Amino acid sequence: MFPHDFAWGAATAAYQVEGGWDADHKGESIWDAFCHREPSGVLGGHSGDVACDSYRLWEQDLRCVRDLGLTHYRLSLSWSRLLPHGTTDHVNQTGLWYYYTPHNNVLRLCSTGVRYYNQVINGLIACNVAPMVTLYHFDLPQALQERGGWQSPHVATLFDAYARFCFQTFGDRVKLWITINEPYVCAKLGHEDAVHAPGIRQPGVAAYLAGHNMLRAHAAAWHSYDAIYRSKQGGLVSMAINSDWAEPLDPESTEDAAATERYLAFTLGWFAWPVFVTGDYPEVMRAAVDRQSERLGRGNSPPRLPRFSKDEPGILGTADFFALNYYTSRKVRPGGGRGGETLLGMKTDLDAEGVVDPSWPVCGVPWLAVAPYGLRKLLKYIKATFNHPAVYVTENGFAQMGPVLMDDIQRCGYYQDTIVEVAKAIEEDGVNVRGYFAWSLLDNFEWSDGYSVRFGLFHVDFSAGERTRTMYRSGREYAQIISKHRSRAQPENPS
Ligand code: GBH
């Protein structure tokens, strides 16, 4: 059974739902720029300009949250809505909002960005739903991109200032923080593959540098929280790491086993190892990158996978829980760096490829093979590898493609089966899982797939001005699961 205080949640991200991309003096983000570029890298030329219009319709989102009976809701803040230039010297000064605090007779000023998130956060708390807040979900202020973005070493200090601003402003009510969502995706899809903003393609170099600065930024923010806010606010801070579960294609093959180790090191390990194990990248990863640099005659100074400076506060220990985004699994064999390849790139460095087991159905997006058992395996692996941390599954979900099915039975099955695996991980493997967040509350802007891919528990009608939200069958079934477990949960013994 699930612990009585288990977090039952759903998640969204600012750019994917808010719209209002330039409302009330919001600054431009890299996703605004990426989508507005011609030709844009997004299917159908879609953008998040309006999305679910949650900037205007946030009260409807709160209704959805309540209809599901969630205990927690995970949302992200738009950095450039709060700080249009990305820096704290400009707190959306032109979009000011005055409010009066009757208890001490003070007329206060705050930015419309602050006002927006205050409304959402206060609205959640008023209906007894705890917010989990992500500071960064892929949407860097464009002004900072123009100063080098995640490839600039200065981004860590700027992120830290933004994080402090958020802790200071919202931390009296927000007790669960995610600094950066999926640094892997930001680094690799944004700086290696160019399929995400900022659309950079510098294989084998830029992603490692971007990822490095994300780790530095995360650590700086965690240290700030720890030193300045924790004693007053008593919250927890982590970074959300995405990973497939991976296992050898041929269980007998030592080559496949080694490839699997690399596969996990290059996804989960890239970020989790520095934070939870050694303060540095997995040795397997560094060795693989260095080996290819040498083989391709690139030399090794500076190393493509950067080294952490001893003069900065460390990375090790900068997470108060493990935040995992899990969707799918792979069977792994070597491939991509066998000697024939002459291209520098992460694929060559990794020298492993993941394939889908034929028994796993693929029914939505091509990458999402249904393998719920992989989550249990991954949770067990995390317990063993990262010193038995408290774990929140901060994302898990299933996409529909093509015609909309309000009776989305495949997604119902996906959630059912996955939640059972979480229960087994808790009961049988003793993993300290503290919560589970479905991705996503709403159908939304699915990055380079635009609106063609639907992950919601609520259907959103993107052709209607009102962006009507309608609960899918999977939403009803998730609500039933939650209510069953919430009512079964024993309230804490008051003595
Ligand atoms: C999450 O990433 C994101 O946090 C969320 O914003 C997003 O909406 C959700 O997933 C659904 O996609 O097309 O073969 O290159 C999940 C991790 C890693 C899954 C990159 C898709 C691309 C595979 N993602 N992966 S491919």
What is the beta-strand fraction? 15-25%
How many structural domains does the protein architecture include? 1
Query: pLDDT below 50 for ≥5 consecutive residues: which ranges?
Result: none
What is the alpha-carbon Rg in Å? 22 Å
Percentage of residues assigned to helices: 25-40%
SSE-based structural type? alpha/beta
Strand order of the largest sheet: 1-2-5-6-7-9-12-14
* Bulk shape: globular
The name of the CATH superfamily reads Glycosidases
Q: CATH topology, anyone?
A: TIM Barrel
Q: Report the CATH C-level class.
A: Alpha Beta
Number of E-state strands = 17
Sketch the major β-sheet.
8 strands, parallel, barrel
The end-to-end span amounts to: 23 Å
CATH architecture name: Alpha-Beta Barrel
Average pLDDT taken over every residue: 94
Say which molecules are bound, naming each kind only once.
ligand GBH
Protein name: Cytosolic beta-glucosidase
InterPro entries: GH, GH_1_N_CS, Glyco_hydro_1, Glyco_hydro_1_AS
GO molecular function: beta-galactosidase activity; glycosylceramidase activity
Family: Belongs to the glycosyl hydrolase 1 family.
Describe the protein:
- With 495 residues, the chain is of the alpha/beta class.
- It has a single domain, classed as TIM Barrel (Alpha-Beta Barrel).
- Helices cover 39% and strands 16% of the residues.
- The chain contains 15 helices and 17 strands.
- The strands form five sheets. An eight-stranded parallel beta barrel has the order 1-2-5-6-7-9-12-14, surrounded by six helices. A three-stranded mixed β-sheet has the order 8-10-11. The protein has a two-stranded antiparallel ribbon with strand order 3-4.
- A hairpin with an 8-residue loop joins strand 16 and strand 17.
- Helix 3 runs parallel beside helix 5 and helix 13 packs parallel to helix 14.
- The radius of gyration is 22 Å and the shape is globular.
- The model has no long low-confidence stretch (mean pLDDT 94).
- Bound molecules: ligand GBH.
- Ligand GBH binds next to loops.
